[in-house]
Specification:
Blueprint lengths: L2 H10 L1 H16 L6 H26 L7 H19 L4 H28 L5 H20 L13 H4 L1 E2 L10 E2 H19 L1 H11 L1 H6 L4 H27 L10 H11 L11 H20 L4 H26 L1
Antiparallel strand pairs: 1-2
Helix pairs in contact: 2-13, 3-8, 3-11, 3-12, 3-13, 4-5, 4-6, 4-11, 5-11, 8-9, 9-11, 12-13, 12-14, 13-14
Length: 328
C-alpha cells in the first residue's frame, strides 16, 4: 500500500485511531481499565451520551444545533416518574412500558415545538435552543415541585440499572439493560438515516437547503422531523437517566448537551451540515467515555476531564474545517 493511501486511510478513520490509542494508553496506565467489570461499566457510561448524540446527528447534519437536550432530559425523566407513581404500577414490565411511552411522547412534543420555532418561525437554532435550555430547566423544577420525585417502585430502575444473564462472577448480571435498549434505538435511527428517502432528504437539506427546496423537498418539514427525532432521543435519555437513580430529578442532564455535541462532531458530523453518521458518532461517544473512565481510574480531577473534553471539541472542529478546505 502506498504511503499516501495509508495516510488517507488514517485520516478517514482518525476517530477510530484515536480511540485505539486512548484504550492502549489507559490500559498501560491502569491495569483495571480492561478488566471485564470496567469494560461493562464503560459501555453503560456511553449510553446516555449515545442516545443524545443519535438525535443530535440529524440536527447537526442539517447545519443546526440543539443545546436544550440536557434540559429536555430532566422534563421527560420527571414526567415518567410522576406517571408511574400516578398509575400506581409496580411490575418491571409496566414501569418500562410507561416510561418509554412517556419518553417518546414528551420528547416528540418537545422536539416538534423546537422544530416549529426554527423551521416555521425562523428562529436561529443556537439562540432558540439556548433560550429553551433555560426555560425547560425552569419548567423541570416547576413540575417537580423544586426537588426530586421519589418513592418509585424498584421496577422503575430496571431500564437504567438492571442487568441480564447472571453468573457466578456477576451475580447481578453481565449485560446492562441500558446497553441493549440504547443499541436498539441507535440501530433504528441509523437505518432511518442511511436507508430511507427521508434520510437522503436530511443530507440534501444539510448540503444545500435552497437546491433541495428547488428539487421539491419540503425543507421545513425535514427540519421539523429532525428536531422531533432529537427530542425523542433526548426524551429516552431522560427516562433512562431517571431509571438509573430511581428518581426524577430537575437537575438531570445538566451539561450533557456539550458531551453529546462533542461526540457527534468527533464522529465526523460537520457543524456546517451536509455530512455525518450515527454509527460514527458512537465512536465519538466511546472516546469521551474512555477519557472520563480512564482519567477517573487514574484519579485525575473531574475538572481536568472537562478541560480535556473542551480541547477535544476545538480540535475536532479544526479537523472538520481542514477537511472542508481540502475538499474545496
Amino acid at each position: 500500500m502506498k504511503k499516501d493511501n495509508v495516510k488517507q486511510l488514517i485520516t478517514d478513520n482518525i476517530v477510530v485511531v484515536v480511540l485505539i490509542l486512548l484504550v492502549i494508553g489507559f490500559s498501560i496506565g491502569n491495569s483495571t481499565f480492561l478488566k471485564t467489570a470496567n469494560v461493562i461499566n464503560l459501555f453503560g457510561q456511553m449510553c446516555l451520551n449515545a442516545l443524545l448524540a443519535t438525535g443530535l446527528t440529524y440536527v447537526i447534519i442539517l447545519g443546526g444545533i440543539d443545546i436544550s437536550v440536557g434540559s429536555s432530559m430532566a422534563i421527560t425523566g420527571i414526567l415518567a416518574a410522576q406517571a408511574v407513581l400516578a398509575l400506581g404500577v409496580e411490575s418491571t414490565f409496566a414501569c418500562m412500558v410507561i416510561s418509554i411511552l412517556v419518553g417518546l411522547v414528551a420528547g416528540a412534543i418537545i422536539g416538534l415545538f423546537i422544530g416549529w420555532l426554527i423551521a416555521y418561525r425562523g428562529l436561529v437554532p443556537m439562540i432558540c435552543t439556548l433560550a429553551l435550555m433555560q426555560a425547560f430547566r425552569g419548567l423541570a423544577y416547576i413540575i417537580s415541585g423544586g426537588g426530586p420525585v421519589y418513592g418509585l417502585p424498584t421496577g422503575f430502575s430496571m431500564l437504567g440499572a438492571g442487568r441480564l444473564i447472571k453468573t457466578e462472577s456477576f451475580k447481578t448480571g453481565i449485560i446492562p439493560v441500558i446497553v441493549i435498549f440504547t443499541a436498539i434505538v441507535v440501530v433504528i435511527f441509523h437505518i432511518i438515516l442511511t436507508k430511507t428517502v427521508f434520510g437522503r432528504h436530511v443530507f440534501a437539506v444539510g448540503s444545500n437547503a435552497s437546491v433541495a427546496h428547488m428539487c421539491g423537498i419540503d425543507t421545513k418539514l425535514v427540519t421539523l422531523k429532525c428536531h422531533m427525532i432529537c427530542g425523542i432521543t433526548a426524551g429516552l435519555a431522560g427516562i433512562v437517566a431517571a431509571s438509573k437513580v430511581n428518581n426524577g430529578h430537575p437537575n438531570t442532564g445538566d451539561g450533557y448537551e456539550m458531551y453529546a455535541i462533542a461526540a457527534t462532531v468527533l464522529g465526523g458530523t460537520s457543524l456546517s451540515g451536509g455530512t455525518g453518521s450515527v454509527a460514527r458518532a458512537m465512536f465519538g461517544c466511546a472516546i469521551i467515555a474512555v477519557i472520563n473512565n480512564g482519567m477517573t481510574l487514574m484519579e485525575i480531577s473531574a475538572y481536568w476531564q472537562k478541560v480535556v473534553i473542551g480541547v477535544i471539541i476545538i480540535l475536532a472542529v479544526m479537523l472538520d474545517m481542514a477537511q472542508k478546505k481540502r475538499a474545496e
